[in-house]
Every structure is written in C-alpha cells, then in structure tokens.
Amino acid sequence: MSITPTTTGQDTLQKFIFDNAAVRGELIDISATWREVLKRHDYPAPVKKVLGHMTAAAALLSANLKFNGSIVMQIHGDGPVNLLVVECDAELRLRATAKLVTGATVPDDATLTTLLNAQGKGRFVITLDPLDKVPGQQPYQGIVPLDGDDVATVIENYMLRSEQLDTKLWLAADDHVSRGLLLQKLPYHGGKAEATPLSEEDALETWNRAVMLGSTLKEKELLETGIDVLIQRLFWEETIRVFDPLHPQFHCSCTREKVGNMLKMLGREEVESVIAELGQVAVNCDFCGQHYAYDKVDCAQLFASDAPVETLIPAGEAKH
Q1: C-alpha span between 126 and 104 (Å, rounded)
Q2: Quick one: which H or E segment has residue 203?
Q3: Span 13-28, mean pLDDT?
Q4: What is the pTM of this model?
Q5: Surface-to-core class of residue 138, CB atoms within 10 Å of its CB (0-12 exposed, 13-18 middle, 19+ buried)
Q6: Residue 47 pLDDT
Q7: CA 183, 186, 191: angle at the middle one, nearest 5?
Q8: Phi-psi region of 240 (alpha: psi -120 to 50; beta: other; left: phi over 0)
Q9: Are 20 and 198 in contact (CB under 8 A)?
Q10: Which pLDDT does position 189 carry in this prediction?
Q11: How far out from the chain centre does Cα 242 lie?
C-alpha cells in the first residue's frame, strides 16, 4: 500500500480494495467544497452537521456508480427542517442546501430525528438523473421512511433494502471539515466476489474484519486526521490496493436558461401576476445564491420565443 499525501486545500476521494478479498472502500475529504457551501449559508450547528454528513455520503456513493448523470440525495422533514438536498454529478461536482421552517428554533443539541423526523413522517430520497436521457426516460427514484438516528444509518438501511448491498459509513462534519469512510461488501456469486475467487465463509470473515477496523474510527479522529494517514492507520495489517485519487469540488449547475424554463413551467399568467405586483420576477438559487431577475420585457421574450433563455436579453440591459 502506497498513499500519496493529498495536496493542501484540495479535496480528495481515495478508493481502495482489499486484495484477494471481497471488500471495497473509499475515504473522502471534501472540506474545501464544504466551506464553499457554508460561506453561502448561515445554518445552525446541528443542521451543518447533518448536511455535512449528507454531502460526504453523496460523493462516496456517486464515486461507485457507473452512471453518467447526477445523484440527488434528499431528506424531506417534518420538524424544524423542511428539506436537505445534496447533488453530486459524475465528475464529483457537489452542491448542497437546507430549508428551515420560517421562524423555527433549532436547539444546539438537535439530532437528525428532532430536526427532520419529529412526527415520524420524514422521508429519505435518492434520485439518479441521467445526463443524456432517451425519449420518455425518467430519473430513477427510491423513496423510503427516515429509518435511522443519523445519516450513516439511514443510508446503510437504504442500501441494504433497496440495493441489497452491505454498506457501512462513518461520517463527520463541523464548520470547517467534512470527511467520511465507506466500506462495501462486494457481491458474492458462487465462489467469486466479482473477479476474485473466495469462499463465502472467507468473504464474510473479511467483511466483518473490515467493519471492525472501521468501527475503531472515532468522530474526532476523522475530523482531525488526513485521509492519507487514516487509511494506513486503519488498514496497515491488510493488503489493499489503492487507486488514483479523485478530486471533488463545489459546482452549482444553475443557469439563466434553467431559471427561465422554470418560469415557463409556472405559466404566463402566474409570471405576469408577479410582474404586475412587483415589477419583476426575482429568483435566487438556493444552492449558490446567484440572483436572477426578469422584468416585463424579459418575460415577454421568454414566452414569445422558443430560443434558449440564455440567448435572450440579460436582465438590466437596454431594451429596444
């Protein structure tokens, strides 16, 4: 095992696999991305922690998908938090946001349950949205009850029930750092775990040992220790192969065209009523805070033209 230390300030996802075994893993540090998320929002500390866990988890799951598109992870809540959303695309570009109930108070000791599942009606949703959809193709979506006291447990239960994959997650986040460890048991098929010959008993023993080693990892250690050090500290007695590191980053996919299309979906009557009342339609991106404004002429062009919205006259420029 040879790990190249990560570049300071650069987010890193490190994949590895147990040699001659049936376990794959990933360690991630998305602290730079996480700070980009937080500088755009002022969330209470418990909300930051849960959303930070989700952001690391979304990248960890996305990195294992052979899928050209985005994974969107959502928790719909029935407590002081209405919604948590994290989106990660095939290039590990991430964005995240949270929506709180107006006027809601979030105690410093709030948990996932008190934030999002106070009445037992919380829902966990994973959507796989292909980049290049064929005609009639819809995104795949899995929706389950919010089963678990933390993000890691919720996702573990989802993966086991919906994907039939034994998965273990260890996640940590604060105001500056977001990191995570994922271990996954590879499918066993008649004496083989993917391409590696292995008895079923040996495969289970390897998996149990890997989980035991992962379970020695404490939250403080995960927050304070670089992933290049962690992988050697946890698995120094194992023979593992590591792959070239990947580098997640913050990216928001909002555009004026997408906002314009959203306004078209609202309909001309609704948009014109807002224009009549306020003089313009103003939209701020929930993820990055980008401001988009449409005045009366912008909206007239929007509904009169089939051209992409980005080719229309930008708000604020002279109209003739």
Answers
A1: 26
A2: helix 200-214
A3: 91
A4: 0.85
A5: exposed
A6: 97
A7: 145
A8: beta
A9: yes
A10: 59
A11: 23
Q: What angle do CA 85, 90, 92 make, to 5 degrees?
A: 65
Q: Is 1's pLDDT higher than 70? A: no
Which structure tokens are listed for 102?
A: 């107006």
CB within 8 A of 316, min separation 6: which ones? 293
Contact between 165 and 184 (Cβ < 8 Å): yes
Please tell me what DSSP assigns to residue 311: G
Alpha-carbon distance of 34 to 247, in angstroms, equals: 13
- The helix (run of H) or strand (run of E) holding residue 256 is helix 256-266
Contacts of 177 (CB under 8 A, 6+ apart): 29, 31, 34, 223, 224
Token pair in block for residue 309 = 């919205």
Q: How far apart are alpha carbons 300 and 317 in whole angstroms? A: 15
Beta-strand ranges (E) seen in 101-243 are 123-130, 140-145, 167-173, 178-185, 188-189, 192-193, 196-197, 240-242
pLDDT average, residue stretch 247-258: 90
Between residues 207 and 316, the one the model is more confident about: 207
User: Residue 64 and residue 169: Cα distance in Å, rounded?
Assistant: 14
Both tokens of 88, joined, read 């990660």
CA pair distance 179, 199, nearest whole angstrom = 33
Determine the pLDDT at residue 72. Answer: 95
Q: Which residues, other chains included, contact 195 with Cβ-Cβ below 8 Å and sequence gap of 6+?
A: none
